[in-house]
Fold each of these.
Amino acid sequence: MQRVTVLGASGSIGKSTADVLAANPDKYSVYALAAKENIDELCRQSELFSPCQVITASEDKFPELQRRLAGKTQVLCGMDAMIAAATAPEVDIVLCAIIGTAGILPVLAALKAGKKVALASKEVLVLAGELVMKAAAESPGGMIVPVDSEHSGVFQCLAGRRNDEIRKVWLTASGGPFRTWEKEKIFHASLKDALAHPTWNMGRKITIDSASMMNKALELIEAKYLFNLDADRLGVVINPQSVVHALAELTDGSMLAQLSVPDMRLAIAYGLSYPERLDKPGSSMDLSKLAELKFFAPDPVKFPSLEFADAALRAGGTLPAVMNAANEVAVERFCAGEIEFGDIWRIVGSVMESVPVEGQESLEQLLAVDAKARSKAWQWR
Ligand code: MG
């Protein structure tokens, strides 16, 4: 029986994680559940799993959570509680699905404490990939299993292979709702248009990122650090059906692909169970019912995100953190109706040019760079 702490339990990935855990009660028990503001969902999952601790990151919601779970479990609040729940000796696996970079401290602490970290928060690797991978490598027992669908696909294609056997890794992209739109029309797209993802049902931030293809830019950085690959060995190909998640081309030209129905519970299940495999939940894919499987090259003129990624992959250091911070603010401003959809790229491009690139030295340095990039992104007019 493995004990799991789930950070970011109330979001789209968190709820799918709850499905996987509930389907495998003989294999997993829940040590702690943490989320920010969705108290209803925390209470629902607390009822389901009877965890030792339930944590909110919101001081405003803390009294309500205490009241509703009084006598049932220990109720805690804040980042220190999340770090303690990620490093407790009873815990075997930490699944981190906190939106944005807020998961960095518990993830680093969990790795240092020798935990297996199933990581869905790609921004953590984009902010501090070198530091995070170093923490994983230096800690006995500490390891990261990617929960992003593409990276889970790469992880499965590369299982047991040496780095020098890999010619190139391809992440697939659905292309999002604007794949077939004209450039000018994309620039002025509404929030409603951007939230209409054709294949995946996800949270708001990642859905906007998919529409702008900034999600794929972040995923390329994530792949660089997870699999130790440089810009020339990383590519993106559009698969509108979202059935092929990743491909790995080996040095002899052989190409491996990972396919499944687009269901995040598969990547979550493998993140929890690796190196074993679970038998539920998992829907089979009927290839004969798949009418077509198409691939296209992405269009860097319509979607400048991939050029930002290329610059960030080549420069490394603090540039990925700057790209990510500028994008988070730009998405927030777009959702608030302050800027146009196309302004997301203008903000990211302008902030990436204005913050000098440094090597990755410490978390404090990266957080300072992150804050500087955010402030520039808020000031952009
Ligand atoms: Mg993904």
Amino acid sequence: MEYKNILFSVEEGLATITFNRPKALNAMNSETMLELKDAVTVCKDDDNVRVLILTGSGDKAFVAGADIAQMQDFEPRDALAFMEMGHETMRLIETLPKPSIAAVNGFALGGGSEISLACDIRFVAENAKFGQPEIMIGLIPGWGGTQRLPRVIGMGRAKELVLGGVQIDAGRAYEIGLANRVYPLEQLMEETRKFARKLAGMPAFGIKMAKHAINFGYDLSLDNATRLEVECCAQCFSTRDQKEGMKAFLEKRKPNYIGR
Ligand code: CO8
């Protein structure tokens, strides 16, 4: 697929998707969402991709939300289609069998906050602003914000953001666990790539199983969730990387992982 609204690159195992509509603060229209979905699918299917990074172009915004200009005349059926497309894409990111990092370089509002919440980890620039301001324009979050935000920051704090349309800065986002780390804007991508390279060097099957256990165990009873963990962990013993990891530890050398 030819991309007009995103930039997509893969270098040394790191895939980077950059939302690239800076004049509209990288707002997501349906065309951009289709491109995002396509690029994430490429990442899922390409064994060379070990980690996915999402960021925004320019120095002002990650994504300032769904495109209000496109949505203003929506009928309910248009809204439904746009939301379903968004949900499919968010779920694709969330369940990608490899890690994803949102490098939040400015506004992450509405749909932008929701995209970052679908990622495993959020690294954030000092100028970042998070919020779910949909209520201010007569909406509520529609790409998972009412569900993923409380899971990350707790119900009371999520309600403050969703009901009050409140925006929070990077420091507050860090304080409440929404941001994993905060960096000066000029260091954000370098630090994100450094951590992404670390993840890319980990045993790929282990990473896949860890994500699976966390994602799919979260809403189960503790008994069922710990059973899921046991099964995921047991499967790691079928890999060459587990043998290598333990052997290297006992031989006091660096492991040489091959991703199987
Ligand atoms: N959609 C479309 N255009 C946008 C958006 C947006 N979400 N955000 C910014 N823009 C455009 C502005 O219209 C402006 O365009 P122009 O230069 O042509 O006038 C340009 O980007 C720059 O924006 P501002 O001049 O407003 O820049 P400021 O620095 O003054 O303000 C803000 C920056 C605070 C980010 C401000 O632009 C703003 O409040 N934006 C809207 C934020 C928002 O409400 N986001 C939530 C949208 S709703 C949503 O995401 C729902 C998700 C899923 C639901 C799906 C339902 C179908």
